[in-house]
Specification:
This protein has 221 residues and is α/β, with parallel strands linked by helices. Helix content is 42%, strand content 22%.
Length: 221
């Protein structure tokens, strides 16, 4: 998933963004309401996390304007306000869910996944795989022929992205955007290096990751 986080509190923003990235999701951050609204209106996100108390434009007004502009992205509010009336105002402004601070990251992630499932009518897969290669997304485990393989977070994220796009060629630019969350730098060898390490750990399964010369990679073609 690609998630937009609109939060001005540095500690909370860091906590949420880090957790989402570790869970394998692409994350964008806006630290004020006006910037958040602009990104919500112009970028393609699967869901958004919006703090209510924001500088320049509060979260309630932000979401109201986004809905008026036709934005249908599922939105969950974060707020220290826990009264029933506050929750009603949040939902009335166009929010799809409301989570009170402090909160457990696992709950936020579960709610985001539920919002996306409802919005798309699709079930988020629990397992991915091709041939004798299996990935358990809940337990963050990878098995090759039944044997567990230990992967670093970037290696896991790269393999997950390839598995989610199995049979399709993905470019280095696409990989950089989804796995490292930033634009492609022609001078970097991050993608090649990580693919090489991943192939080394997959042993015979390394052959599943095919290089498409001049373009990128494809898994399970």
């Amino acid at each position: 998933m690609r998630i937009l986080v609109i939060e001005d509190d540095e500690k909370i923003a860091s906590f949420v963004v880090k957790g989402l990235k570790q869970a394998g999701h692409q994350t964008d951050l806006a630290i004020d309401g006006e910037l958040g609204l602009a990104r919500l209106r112009t970028a393609n996100h699967d869901a958004a996390v919006v703090d209510i108390m924001l500088p320049h434009l509060d979260g309630l007004t932000l979401v109201q304007r986004a809905r008026q502009a036709g934005v249908t992205t599922p939105i969950i509010f974060l707020s220290a306000r826990r009264e029933l009336d506050d929750r009603i105002r949040g939902l009335g402004a166009g929010g799809d869910d409301y989570l009170v601070k402090p909160f457990a990251f696992s709950e936020l992630l579960a709610r985001l996944q539920a919002l996306v499932r409802r919005a798309t009518g699709a079930l988020e897969p629990v397992r991915l795989g091709v041939g004798e290669l299996e990935m358990d997304l809940m337990k963050r485990r990878v098995l090759w022929r039944g044997q567990e393989i230990t992967l670093q977070p970037r290696e896991f994220a790269l393999l997950e992205y390839l598995l989610r796009n199995k049979g399709r060629v993905v470019s280095k630019v696409m990989i950089m955007e989804h796995v490292w969350d930033y634009g492609f730098d022609p001078e970097t060898s991050l993608v090649e290096t990580t693919v090489s390490r991943l192939r080394g750990k997959l042993l015979e399964g390394a052959e599943l990751i095919e290089t498409v010369r001049g373009v990128g990679y494809v898994l399970g073609r």
